[in-house]
Structures are given as C-alpha cells and as structure tokens.
Amino acid sequence: MACSSGACQSNNCYKQEEEEESEQNSIASILDAKRGTESNDPQQSLCIKCKANSPISCTGEDVRFCADCFRSNLYGKFRLAVSSHAMITPSDKVLVAFSGGPASRVALQFVHEMQNRAQKNFDASRDRSLPVFGVGVAVIDESAIYPIPAHEFDEAITEIKLVVSNLAPPTKELHIVPIENVYASDSVDKRNRLKELLDSVTDVTGKEDLLLHLKMLSLQKIASENGYSRLILGSCTSRIACHVISAAVKGQGYSLSANIQYVDARWDTPIVLPLRDCLSQELNLLCRVDGLKTVELLNGPSSGINHLVSSFVALLQEENPSRECTIVRTAGKLTPFHFNRIPEISDCNVPLATRRRQKRFSLQPKESISSESFCPICISPLNKSEMQTLSGFGSFQSSDTFSPSCCPSCRFQILPKDPHSMEHFISLLPQPLAAQSKHDIGGNLNLLREQIQDFLLSDSDSET
Amino acid sequence: MAEAESKQRKPGARLCCICSQRRPALKRPKTLEQICRECFYEVFEEEIHQVIVQNQLFKPGERVAIGASGGKDSTVLAYVLSELNRRHNYGVDLFLLSIDEGITGYRDDSLETVKRNEIQYGLPLKIVSYKDLYGWTMDEIVKVIGLKNNCTFCGVFRRQALDRGAAFLKVDKVATGHNADDIAETVLLNILRGDIARLSRCTSITTGEDGPIPRCKPFKYTYEKEIVMYAYFKRLDYFSTECIYSPNAYRGFAREFIKDLERIRPRAILDIIRSGENFRISTSTKMPEQGTCERCGYISSQKWCKACVLLEGLNRGLPKLGIGRSRGLNNEEKREKKQSNGISAIESKACGTLDF
Ligand SMILES: [Zn+2]
Ligand SMILES: [Zn+2]
Ligand SMILES: [Zn+2]
Ligand SMILES: [Zn+2]
Ligand SMILES: [Zn+2]
C-alpha cells in the first residue's frame, strides 16, 4: 500500500504501528527540544547540516540548524510542494492571500523568491522562451465585522503596502478589498447586509466559519476579476492539523479530505497550499530570523469550537513535537476527491518538462470518487447518506430546497433554526454562494464528460 | 401544541418538554431539553432499543454475555438490557461476565458489586481470573514490573480473558458498556496517533466478527452523562472508583477535550462519531493477517500472541519482554513492541473501567 499523500517523505508511512516513533523527519530534528541525543558530541555547537556555522540561538526552542540551512530547508519543502503538484507554471499569474500573519508572510516571501529566480533565469536566457509567472497580493479587510480604530487600520494598511512594495521587482499588484465586496458591485448597503447576515447566525463557531467561507469567496472573486490562475494560501501543517480536528468535531468526516490537500480545484481559480509541510513554529522562526514584518491587526479573534481545538492541538504539540504532522498524515491517508489536483493540462504552450513532472508525481486521480453535489455554504462535497432529499438543484431562492441542500454541519451551526427566517437568511447571502455551487455542478458535468469523451460524437460539443 | 400550552402558564412553572404534564427534573445532556424523570427513562431506553433493532444486534435464541466490571456503564447496560429483553421479547439469554485481574482494593470491591447485580437482575455470573488463566494477579505483575507498563498487561490480558470466559459460557456475542464518549474519544485518539486501520473500524457497532467472539456496543450513541444520570435516578448499585493502576496523561487530554466540547456543543460527541463513520478510507487498509498463537491457540498475527509473549517474559524473569527494548521471541518483535506501546500510551479507557 502506497502512501496516499505525496507529502510523506519517510517511506515508513504504511507501517501504522511504527508511526509514533518513525516521525524523525526534518521537523523533529529541527525542533528537537527534549531528545538531546548528541549532548556529548563535540560538534553540538555547530549546525547539524553544514557542520560549519553555529545554530540559530533563540529562546524557547532548541534549533540545531544555522540560519542558512534552516531557511533553505524550509524553502526546499515549499519548492517540493510547488513542483510536485504543478502549483505554479511559468504561464501562471498567482494571487497570494496575505493576512499579515507569519504563515502568509512566508508564503509571500517564498513565492517572491521563486519569481525572482525565474526572472533571473529569464534575463539570462537568450531566447526568453520561458515566461516569468506573475504575482499579486490580496488582503481582505474585515473591519466591517471586527471594527478597529481608524488610525490603527491605516497604520496596518501602510505596513502592508510597505511589505509588498519592498519586495524586489517584478512589481506585485496589491489588492486590498473590504469583505463586504463579496456582494455584487451593484448591490446596495453591502456592509450592513453582511453584518445582518452574520448577526443572524447565533452559534459563535458557525458565525466564524461562515465568515471564513465568505473570505474565501472574496479571494476567489478578486482572483477571477483580475485574471489570476492560482490562489496561494499560507496554510501550514499546524493550521491544517487544527482543521482536521475541528472538521471531525463538526461531523464533517466525509468532506474532511477535500480541504486538506495541496490542491483544491473546486473553484474557478484553484487553491494551492505550498506550506502544507511547514510547522507554524518554523514559519514564526523564519520571520524572526529574517526580520520579516508581520501585521496581525486585521485578524479577528477565535472563539467557540475552533478556539477549543487550537488550544487542544497546541497542548498536544507541546507534549510531542511531531503530533501535528501525525494528525495531518492521518488525514492525508483518507481518500481525496477528484478535484484535489490541478486539472490535466492539454495546453501545448506548457513546457514538456512541466508536463512530465506532473506525470511523474501523483496527479493521476487515485480512487477519487466523483461526487455530484456540494453544500452551497461551505462547498463541501456531500455524502449521499447525509443528503436530504433534493428536488431540483436550480431553485435556490426557495427556502424549502435550500436547507436540505446544505451539509449537516452548516445546517446546524449556520442556518437559522426557524423556517420563517430562512427566506430572509437566503436573501442576505451573496449571490455567488448559490452560483458557485451551481457552477461546481457544471464543472462536475465536465469532469464526467471527460471520462466518456471518446464515446461522444462531435455534434454534442455545443452542449457544454 | 405542547409549546402553546406551556406558554399559557407562568414562566416559573415550566413543564417537561416531552409530556408537558410533569415538572422537569433534569436537563437532558444530549439535547439540553428540560424533561421529567419518567420521560428521561423512556427516551433513554427507547434510543438504546432503536439502536439494537436498527443494527440487529441480537437474534432470538442467542446467548449474550455482558462484560461486567461493576462500574456504571456495565451496570446500567446489564439493567437496561434485561429490561428491554423482557419488554420487547428479544428472546436472548443474558449472562454477566467479569474479569478478576487481582487488584486488591479495587477489583475485589467492584466484583462484590457485580455479585449483587447477579442477584438483583437475576443474571448468571461467570468470573474469570488472571490468576487462574495466567498464574499471575495484576498486583503480582505490578510488583515485578512497576507501574509504568502495567496497562499493556491489563489491556492484552483482559481482552483474552474475556474471550476465554465467553467461550466457557458458550455465548454468541459479548455486549460491552462502551458509550458515545468512549467512541468519540477513540476516533480522536486514532487520528492523533495516525492509526488509519483502527480509525476505519472504531465506530463499528459490532467488531471482532472475524475473531473468536464478536463484541457489540449497544451504548454507541448513549452519552456518559446520561448513563450516570440513569444510574443515579434509578439508584443502581455500581462501583465508582478509578483503577488504581492507570497512569496515562495523554488519554487525559482527549477526555478533557471532549468534556470541554460537550459543554459548548453537546452534539459534538455524536458529530465525532458521525465523522468516524463517514471518513473516506479505501478498503485496502487492512489489519495484519490473523493466525493462531502456536502456544495457546488464541488468534494472533504473530507466532505467539501478545499475552503469551508478556507471560513468557514474566515467567522468565524478563518482564520487559514484549514491552521494553529487550530482544524477543517473535521475528517481528519490534513491531509487537510498538503495538503494545501504542496501546499503553493511548488506551482509550482507563484500564479499570472495562476496556475489552
Ligand atoms: Zn548550516
Ligand atoms: Zn456546509
Ligand atoms: Zn415528561
Ligand atoms: Zn491498567
Ligand atoms: Zn498465546
């Protein structure tokens, strides 16, 4: 049995019994706080990789790499994720979602470095055949939901602008977009409509999760309006570990594997997670070591179930520094969905090498089960047994059909309990939530079509 | 209609959400509904009955042993199963099956409780002791190996002792008192330790159908708090001291987490179980091939079963055999070691509370 996630670099992954002990991968050796096995080694004061420089000295963690080796190790994980999942190709234009926190700050930095190298190669090459991918940065302004004093907000925006403009050329376009822009541009009083929508959700966790879905939708909107081909998130191992546990706790066992993969192509603009194999401790450390400026102000507080889960995972991680990796690897063994890969590239402009690389790594659909319906709120694929009887997916304005089309988790924590408020709740939702879901069904049709393509006559082309 | 009726009353004098006749006596932990005692008994028992019927746990004429530790879960299970068997004519023969690990001050007291249950519920009781089966009591084992690895012995020996007892009683299956909290906890622990094979099976209501005697969990969806409440209101006679040999901190984290979750969202326990049932796990993740132990004939994926390896160590004066780093008898000693360590590190239930 092969490892179901490309992430696993230790080849022991199929031996379940040995997992607890076999996690001696890079993370354990970098942040090995307790098991000082080489305590009497005369070389203990040197970096364990290059054995030349002294390790990073910092309080709290016992880092055994020097700054250079630490950085190149982390960048290596990023680059491997990018190349093995075809996350960025030369013809792409990628949008980095920047929250101001360390994870997305590192994502921005690494994408920038990669672009910088590509630019150098481009400048050095004679024929200039390989274009350099474009980079943009998106910041979602949530002040409509989490109000902050105007001067603090302005300061944060200035900081963010500085971070982006200080990156060496090529210039990166910065999109700072208020969350209420998730509504169509012609809608009136977006801000209050959004507030009213969120206020109608009584469960604190539900409110937080709905806001997260809206944020993702906003990012997608920015990406498609500005012609981006990829959306890059800074989700790291620690963050994904928390997602695994909270999804389990919210009863989302079926759809769990959809949201934790390197690639999520459910959307118009596929979402990619190049920092999936990096721990938040590592990302924090890199920001400190390299003086990468972070701006925490724009992020809302965490509460309810999500808060409980992150303190639980933090506690476990403290007890065992490889716990987060184990959690993510467990979830990685669940069967992913067909959309958890970049759609097959048939474009001849893509260099052969890239196409070959794609072939070599596991981009082929595994046992991915084709799934036809998605929750219109959280876009989770729906389990047949969890679906309530649906009659005609088209009629989204009717409150009778909306609720059964949602996943049980959204039904419980987001939708109003009282059927009378349902109509109003739906009217407050941004249009794309419904449209997105419809689109996905269309996308799915295309996917099904792909499988039977050879048997279709050319006349039927007009149907799609 | 019930709502309208209660609205006419004064706000202070609320009535049971279910019958709208009696004063509520409790807030139901699973739903937070305020209900009366009679309605609580009714919904508590009816839910278990529905689980039994829907999952076809028992067939008429079957002999069923209830794993009885004297603790609240198995005491309530014995009481409720004998009630339901009578009320709904399951037509099964029920027995109590207890394990005497030989833990002074703990098991001897809890066995007294089981013996009283035998009389109270009129169910025949069989006690299987470690001393008889293995020649060692837990007290003697702890004297030799100390407190550190004793749960490895607890778990391995108890599971096998239960099968032996069940064989003696010639029962068709064993019903255990694992409740919803236990199962939710096991789901989480299997995620935390990366055990995908166990993760795929731990929410099954019936397990071990390939083993000597299948086990089933009629309390799969029953909340621990409701079991305690039921035992309290019915004044059931149970023993409530934790096993004196249970030192694991790790398990404590998950337990505590589930309690915290339940506090802010009672349905989280059921949600975790539902997640566990719906995980997309490809069927190719199998457990190791089962054979039989060359020494005692018990099912084992190794040459010798775990109990025999542990016993051999004890008898040869090498008690760490099978748990420590010493060399062992099986070719795959390393694997065996890891497995037993895994069990001891994150056993889902306190060893004294009947984890079969
Ligand atoms: Zn170095
Ligand atoms: Zn949903
Ligand atoms: Zn009542
Ligand atoms: Zn024990
Ligand atoms: Zn044996």
Write the layout of secondary structure elements.
The complex is a heterodimer of chains A (464) and B (356).
Chain A: H1 19-22, H2 26-30, H3 67-84, E1 93-97, H4 102-124, E2 134-141, H5 150-166, E3 173-178, H6 190-199, H7 204-225, E4 230-232, H8 237-249, E5 263-264, E6 271-272, H9 280-290, H10 304-319, H11 323-332, H12 352-360, H13 399-405, H14 408-413, H15 419-428, H16 431-452
Parallel strand pairs in A: 1-2, 1-4, 2-3, 4-6
Antiparallel strand pairs in A: 5-6
Chain B: H1 2-8, E1 26-27, E2 34-35, H2 37-54, E3 63-67, H3 72-87, E4 93-100, H4 107-121, E5 125-129, H5 130-134, H6 138-145, H7 150-169, E6 173-175, H8 180-192, H9 196-201, E7 206-207, E8 215-216, H10 224-233, H11 249-264, H12 268-278, E9 291-292, E10 299-300, H13 306-315, H14 333-346
Parallel strand pairs in B: 3-4, 3-6, 4-5, 6-8
Antiparallel strand pairs in B: 1-2, 7-8, 9-10
Helix pairs in contact in B: 3-10, 7-14, 8-11, 8-12
Care to describe what's here?
The complex is a heterodimer of chains A (464) and B (356). Chain A is built from 16 helices and 6 strands. Chain A is mainly alpha-helical. In chain A, helix 3 packs across helix 9, helix 8 crosses helix 10 and helix 8 packs across helix 11. In chain B, strands 5-4-3-6-8-7 form a 6-stranded mixed sheet. In chain B, strand 7 and strand 8 form a beta hairpin. In chain B, helix 7 crosses helix 14 and helix 8 crosses helix 12. Chains A and B meet through helix 1, helix 8, helix 10, helix 11 and helix 14 of A and helix 8, helix 9, helix 11, helix 12 and helix 14 of B. The structure holds zinc ion (5 copies). The site of one zinc ion (ZN) has 8 residues of chain A, from helix 14.
